[in-house]
């Protein structure tokens, strides 16, 4: 895996300048909010071309473990908004591959993809590849606590980025043709990884929050840059495929710096630094004091808990992705092929 990722990167370097040039011209001005009334953003699909969504990833995307405080996650919202079929395979706690970043949860490689293949084989699902969009949103656990950030494995961000992009090649090999690759959010802005963090349910041991925040920013920025370069290099090599890069990083950065354009709750102030469901722990102890924000106040928050997006943040992720199915396109998606 390590060798493959490195080789792929080196092979890509000459293509970078050209790809960067081709990527210009996507500035859509300062308009915010998304939604069906927006102008159309370039994409290779018209309304009704795509009829199904197959999702891979971690707790941000898992539909059996609701992490936004609501009753559904963003994939079911997309299915509702755009009236399409959903085949969800993402699992909470998962990383890209347990061979690279081991955690005791179902990873994309080794668990989620094999489950998908088994479902196809026994006809639990039947997909028309031209009408199906495959999505991947992974990395939160790979770069986070008990993994890269805390040095719990021998992996590097290059290994992780290589694995993420291998998902495209691997699924292409199984017949998939349309891909949506969701990059990592600015994790250093989540309460868990921010400089003003508190001891919480995900980490209650002593630590230097400034160092965590700085390191996390580096991991996310370099990981996102690596996957972008690798995908740009891959795009022209996969005949008949469409690869879209969903810029979660820009979307969440915008929600953080510009909350009035995205959050609409009834709390007295927008809140992008705290969370709806927060628990402040004693260091190295199970004692905690928890606060829960209820009702329509919740939609004033960017984060649900110390690690996960709020329901309102998820609605925006879903709206942008639904717009792909509805033919409008999204300003957060760049189609590399
Ligand atoms: C992980 O390692 C095992 C044992 O070496 C191997 O059989 C498997 O194919 C590897 N999986 C991936 C996704 O690389
Ligand atoms: C098909 O395989 C999946 C994954 O192993 C399994 O969960 C499901 O029950 C199987 N369905 C049938 C109809 O055999
Ligand atoms: C935490 O790390 C920062 C950055 O390295 C450093 O400036 C600061 O002194 C550290 N704080 C403590 C309490 O060690
Ligand atoms: C905020 O907007 C979303 C649509 O983005 C809507 O579903 C939700 O009900 C709104 N929340 C409040 C408190 O009005
Ligand atoms: C944001 O939420 C946190 C709870 O996580 C709270 O402590 C903080 O005071 C709130 N900030 C604002 C500006 O309301
Ligand atoms: C939210 O609801 C819970 C459960 O009913 C309650 O314990 C808590 O005090 C409420 N929070 C606020 C801020 O009112």
TrEMBL record:
Superkingdom of origin: Eukaryota
Entry keywords, A to Z: Hydrolase, Signal
This protein's record includes keyword Hydrolase: yes
Pfam families, A to Z: Lipase_GDSL (PF00657)
InterPro entries noted in UniProt: GDSL (IPR001087), GDSL_Est/Lipase (IPR051058), SGNH_hydro_sf (IPR036514)
Example of a GO MF term: hydrolase activity, acting on ester bonds
Disordered as annotated region, ranges: 23-44
Signal sequence, start to end: 1-19
Name used for this protein in its record: Carbohydrate esterase family 16 protein
Organism per entry: Leucocoprinus birnbaumii
Lineage: Eukaryota, Fungi, Dikarya, Basidiomycota, Agaricomycotina
